[in-house]
Amino acid sequence: MSFSQDIKEQIARHLPQKRKDRISFLAAMFMQCGHRKEISENCPAVYFVTEREDVARICFTLLKKTYNINIGCSVKYAHTEVFRLKIKGAESLDICRDLCVERDLAGLDLDDAESRRAFISGAFLCSGSCNDPQKSYHLEIVCDTDEKADFLKEQMERFDIKAKTVCRKNHRVIYLKNGSQIVDMLALMDAHVSLMVMENSRILKDMRNSVNRRVNCETANISKTVSAAVKQIEDIRFLEETGRLSELNAGLKDMARIRLENPELPLQELGKFFDPPIGKSGVNHRLRSLCEEAAKYRKVKA
Fold first, then answer.
1. What is the distance between the alpha carbons of residues 290 and 9, in angstroms, rounded to a whole number?
2. How far apart are CA 152 and CA 3, in angstroms?
3. Which terminus has fewer CB within 10 Å in the chain: N or C?
């Protein structure tokens, strides 16, 4: 089962209990998969059409529980199964009024947090998806008009969820790519099991990235240390071959000998060979002096 389907099953297990919130949920479902058809004067028919059996079942349950009406249900087979719920006659008038079928979406009564949560959950149930967090962070809801996308995005922003939109073919897609924002969205829709899966994935990714950064940093430091040691040994051998090393003071001669005998050791360890021991900065100063002497002598010979 996909991660998206897991989320939708959790939404289905936490359907709104209050009538007002059920209407908000149904309004989102109508926005995503509903349409109205005029059969005769003052006698509209309301349809909910979906390829998903679970969406049709939830829609049927909410309509029956909210309005206690007879609902026609049919299944058509074309390339895929298509489930169609139909409410007609006088019974459809209340639905048209409550779901703002004939009015602007702004007429919906979403004046409290629970109604907005129900609306967002209904929209995701019909046309939302979310990638497996082990692969990538991406949650989206597809809308068929700019008006619907803007309205849904506005409801999400009232919970500080800052979604972005993009055009895809003839649709507007609202999407999130930030892990923490997707977690907030899952919490909003009561998909708490998927939220925990998402959080575990984020923790593992953060740990893996932290380990990789540390390994890369240590590898870079080792590479830098090795390169510096190779350069120091080359300079010391140049000074030795040209006879210049014997002209230097005892401290630099000792440093040259210790470095040649211990090419793999870091500066701090080299300092322990001296009596008394010297610190890392002292070792670095002496090695730098040797390299400077080599550079000056190369210029003279040139």
1. 72
2. 22
3. C
Task: Report d(CA 75, CA 83) in Å as an integer.
Answer: 5
SS3 26: helix
What's the pLDDT tens digit per position in 104-122? Answer: 676 777 888 999 999 999 9
Judge contact between 201 and 207, C-beta under 8 A.
Answer: no
DSSP label at residue 271: G
Read off the pLDDT of residues 15-40 as tens digits, 9 standing for 90 and up: 999 999 999 999 899 888 888 887 66
Look over the chain and give the mean of its residue pLDDT values, rounded to a whole number.
Answer: 86
Per the DSSP assignment, residues forming a β-bridge with 84 are 49, 74
| Token pair of 276 as six digits | 């008394």
Amino acid (1-letter code) at residue 183: V
Delineate the domains of the chain, giving CATH numbers in brackets: 3-202 (3.10.28.10), 214-301 (no CATH)
Q: Tokens in use for 47? A: 């349809």
Q: Is the pLDDT score of 103 beyond 70? A: no
Rounded CA separation 51/42 (Å):
29
> What is the spatial distance between Cα 139 and Cα 198, in angstroms, rounded to a whole number?
12
pLDDT range class, residue 228, cuts 50, 70, 90: confident
